[in-house]
């Protein structure tokens, strides 16, 4: 079951947009919050469909856009043109290492990188609003020949 705070945030956002609160949107939120993966709409739809077969693909897509708008998740693109969503609310900032062979995205947190970015912005009189760091390469598993399809 989703955490009450996320439900409250979503319900308040829906109200502020003049949209209806629906059971289907709440179910999509529930399924999304139960995962900790980078989820495409298609992949999330498969998870939703298993548990709630009456919910359609369009509902999942539109709900994820709303969740991103209200700050509960963020849309990410790992360079392959496929939009994925990851949790944002209550999660610390992190960067990604993305394998160009198998597509695996590894989340990394390194305070030294964050400090370097802050120092760089300050040195140039720049006020950052948000940032992302994505490093593309070949993961250890793929470079050792044990490629995953």
What's the short version?
The protein is built from 6 helices and 6 strands; from the N terminus they run ααβααββββαβα. The chain has helices spanning 4-16, 23-33, 41-51, 57-69, 111-123, 140-143, and strands at residues 39-40, 73-77, 83-87, 95-99, 105-108, 134-137.
What does this structure look like?
This protein is 44% helix and 17% strand. It has 6 helices and 6 strands; from the N terminus they run ααβααββββαβα. It has helices at residues 4-16, 23-33, 41-51, 57-69, 111-123, 140-143; strands spanning 39-40, 73-77, 83-87, 95-99, 105-108, 134-137. The two termini are 33 Å apart. The mean pLDDT is 86. It has a 3-stranded antiparallel β-sheet with strand order 1-3-2. The protein has a 3-stranded mixed β-sheet with strand order 5-4-6, with no helix packed on it. The protein is of the alpha+beta class. α2 crosses α3, α2 crosses α4 (57-69) and α3 packs across α4.
Helix/strand layout:
Blueprint: H1 4-16, H2 23-33, E1 39-40, H3 41-51, H4 57-69, E2 73-77, E3 83-87, E4 95-99, E5 105-108, H5 111-123, E6 134-137, H6 140-143
Parallel strand pairs: 4-6
Antiparallel strand pairs: 1-3, 2-3, 4-5
Helix pairs in contact: 2-3, 2-4, 3-4
């Amino acid at each position: 079951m989703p955490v009450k705070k996320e439900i409250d945030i979503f319900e308040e956002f829906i109200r502020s947009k003049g949209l209806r609160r629906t059971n289907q949107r709440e179910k999509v939120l529930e399924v999304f919050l139960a995962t900790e993966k980078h989820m495409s709409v298609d992949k999330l739809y498969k998870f939703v469909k298993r548990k709630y077969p009456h919910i359609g693909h369009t509902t999942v897509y539109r709900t994820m856009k709303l969740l991103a708008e209200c700050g509960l998740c963020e849309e990410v693109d790992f360079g392959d043109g496929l939009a994925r969503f990851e949790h944002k609310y209550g999660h610390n900032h992190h960067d990604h290492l993305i394998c160009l062979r198998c597509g695996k995205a590894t989340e990394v947190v390194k305070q030294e990188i964050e400090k370097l970015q802050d120092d760089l912005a300050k040195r140039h009189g720049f006020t950052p609003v948000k940032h992302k760091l994505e490093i593309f390469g070949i993961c250890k598993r793929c470079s050792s020949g044990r490629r995953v399809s």
